UniProtKB/TrEMBL annotation:
Annotated keywords: Heme, Iron, Metal-binding, Monooxygenase, Oxidoreductase
Gene3D superfamilies: Cytochrome P450
Primary role: Involved in the coupling of aromatic side chains of the heptapeptide of vancomycin.
SUPFAM superfamilies associated with the record: Cytochrome P450 (SSF48264)
Protein name: Cytochrome P450
Transmembrane segments: none
MF GO annotations: heme binding; iron ion binding; monooxygenase activity; oxidoreductase activity, acting on paired donors, with incorporation or reduction of molecular oxygen
InterPro entries: Cyt_P450, Cyt_P450_B, Cyt_P450_CS, Cyt_P450_sf
Pfam families, per database record: p450 (PF00067)
Organism lineage: Bacteria, Bacillati, Actinomycetota, Actinomycetes, Pseudonocardiales
Amino acid sequence: MAPTESTDGTTATVGCPHSELEAQPETEFDLSDPAFITDPAAGERWLSAPRPICRGRFADGMPIWVVTRYADVKAVLSDPRFASKPPGDLHVQSMLARGIPEDIVEMFDSTVLTMDGPDHARVRRLVTGALSARRVRSLRSGIERIATELLDKMDPGGEVDLIAELAHPLAIAVICELLGVDERYREQWRQWSETLAAALRPDPEQLAPAVRGMAAVTRELIEARRAHPEDDLISELVGVHEADGDRLTDDELVAMAMVLVQAGHDTVRNLICLGVHTLLDHPEQAELLRAEPDRTARAVAELVRYTAPVKHTFRRFATEPVRLGEITVAQGEAVQIVLAAANRDPEQFTEPGELDLARPDNPHLGFGHGPHYCLGAALALNEAEIAINLLLRRHPGLRRAAPAEEVAPRYLLPMEKLPVYLEETR
């Protein structure tokens, strides 16, 4: 469940006017170019060719340093001199520009995604204790049940969209089950999640009621669990909130729940559909996985590396001048980390452009690294392992129902559909 940043809508520009960033004559990586949205090849060249740190431009026009090499990416993600929260009021202005209501902005201004230093360590420590390995293990049977029910509903003789009928509903059902969201709210939360995910083209008329609605229902859920705790994550987070010493505020509880829903839904959905899409392009690898299902955990790790369900981290901002590789990042300048490219770095991976589900050494950065490593990585991997394993085992004749180029993912946008024909095991 790793978090993503396709764009955050920021309109202001940071950086020193005489920095190396401003002095470079050309922009090599321009996310404001529509080709990054419309042309799959525009992003593919950045996945396949990690390069020295270079000048770039974010989708909102902000100048950025683009970091794509594995060692450089790890260095930035480990360095406390790079902050997650933009300087000044850029984060607030970004949210307002996207249409997030002013009364909600303050709550979202400081979440685990944008906190740094002691504040981030405090919240992360409290949440990590609630989102334990025990809880993730306890969800496996529920994930298997939900995935099986979704597969049972599919018509093996017809065309099925695996995003609409498997990846999407599985992701939202599992995260709602984890949090303890009542069944009557789950369809509404699915719709809210889709609205919040439209980061590139936010519709303020839809976004404002979605954010307000999700926040209001989350507050109701918190109050209900405070009165009557159950075996779910919200109850555990409320328990942390009520404990002596360090605690989560009510706003932090609401923001954390909403972050988990959005990040967990998007990442899992993308990983499942990109994983299946890739296996359809590599039938020999899919057959290997069918024959040896015990390889699933290693195989999904390789699919994370190869498909990059999370292309970028949030931007980082230098809190002081930092020498990074061949350049110096000036105080206040933005650094964009491209996880997808780092995971194709030939200095780190043998034949990085090849899919190898049996890859023995795979220290990928698909869920980030360092203090902001994805809180829900274990849950996301469990969901993908179960869904892909069940799908391949039940439908050995799985094949596309549309040409690959028609459904190919574009660099900044998730796949919209994955139509397939199924064939059940006899």
